[in-house]
Design a protein that fits this description.
There is one protein chain. By secondary structure, the chain is mainly beta. The chain has 2 domains: 180 residues, no CATH class; 96 residues, no CATH class. It contains 2 helices and 23 strands. Strands 1, 4, 9, 11, 13, 14 and 15 form a 7-stranded mixed sheet that branches. It has a 7-stranded antiparallel sheet with strand order 18-17-23-19-20-21-22, with helices on one face. Strands 2, 5, 6 and 12 form a 4-stranded antiparallel sheet that branches.
Length: 340
């Protein structure tokens, strides 16, 4: 057992939160976004009642809660406590909201898994690797966190699996610390923020702003694709695969041959266009990611980024179950973009 603080301090911990900082920025309790390679640090922040006043103890150099920067004191000068860190992660890689008249927000099964490497420290590096579902992200994706504080026989914790949105979705409130690390600032890079989150059949929201994809709770194939475009500045709403032709332009179309190549209506091989173009099948969609197989030509060895009965990942078209289906290469219309 590792304890931190001062055994002479008599304050009582009354609330616990996690604040996160990207690089040298002030630590905040808001959902945090970063690029791979940018250090993301999680700090314990303890609200302590002592001598008739309330003091926040944290080792973050600067802490911003909402619009206000607050003064903090070092953890080492606060009351003696034991700290335990948890990841709050979905236990399943796929679920369903139902369909048609049976629609409902399925409750995502979130579980607290101890971060054993934290060692009871008040400062740890954010680690978004999942432990309960397949890790397709190689260090990118979204993870939620909880801090548990033991003070004597008392247990005080930041919000965790119990902090539900209720009927608004199957997910958690933003009071549960959330960190999203993307691969880079490209369209495919922003899609990687959805890694580690479940495939949700018929993902939805009462508005675009409250959509499950917008909150990084999970998505179906079409909403996953739209999420990346919205993060890139596209002014569009979440939709289903049948709605994608309306907001995209057709680049090419073809069918699968025995040699694995896709050919157009004239029998000519379709070119591998560019990463990020949509690969639209009947009732499924992904984003073109990596040119493999016959270089320069679209074939079933090329990788797409998609989600289908599993958390998002890159996968060869041949392994998706849709290789034999006719496909269209599509591109989001440029006039959908604006500064956000």
């Amino acid at each position: 057992m590792v304890r931190v603080g001062n055994d002479q301090a008599t304050g009582r911990v009354i609330a616990v939160r996690i604040v996160a900082a990207v690089g040298d920025a002030a630590a905040t309790d808001q959902p945090t976004y970063a690029r791979a390679g940018e250090p993301v640090v999680l700090f314990a922040a303890l609200d302590v009642q002592e001598a008739g006043k309330r003091t926040v103890y944290s080792d973050a150099p600067a802490v911003r809660l909402g619009a206000h920067e607050i003064r903090v004191r070092p953890i080492a000068t606060g009351p003696l406590v034991e700290l335990r860190w948890n990841k709050i992660e979905p236990a399943a890689a796929e679920l369903s909201n139902g369909d048609g008249n049976d629609f409902h927000f399925a409750e995502i099964d979130y579980r607290a898994t101890p971060i054993e490497t934290a060692g009871g420290k008040p400062v740890i590096a954010a680690d978004v690797h999942p432990t309960l579902t397949p890790d397709h992200g190689n260090g990118v994706g979204t993870m939620r966190y909880q801090l548990v504080v033991l003070q004597g026989d008392r247990v005080i914790a930041s919000p965790g699996p119990e902090a539900r949105r209720g009927k608004a979705s199957g997910g958690l409130l933003d009071t549960v610390m959330r960190v999203s690390i993307r691969r880079d600032d490209t369209y495919l890079g922003f899609l990687t923020e959805m890694y580690n989150q479940p495939y949700i059949w018929a993902s939805a929201g009462f508005t675009d702003a409250t959509h499950q994809s917008e909150r990084l709770e999970g998505s179906d194939c079409a909403d996953f694709i739209v999420y990346g475009a919205r993060r890139m500045g596209a002014k569009l709403s979440y939709t289903y695969t049948g709605g994608l032709p309306r907001i995209t332009t057709l680049v090419a179309a073809g069918t699968h041959g025995r040699d694995g190549l896709y050919r157009d209506a004239h029998g000519q091989p379709i070119a591998f266009t560019r990463p990020g173009d949509l690969v639209l099948f009947p009732r499924h969609v992904g984003a073109l990611a990596v040119d493999r197989g016959t270089i320069g030509v679209l074939d079933d060895q090329d990788l797409i980024m998609h989600t289908l009965w599993d958390s998002p990942k890159e996968q060869a078209i041949a392994d998706t179950g849709y290789a034999d289906q006719p496909l269209e290469l599509r591109r989001f219309k440029p006039d959908l973009h604006r500064d956000r």
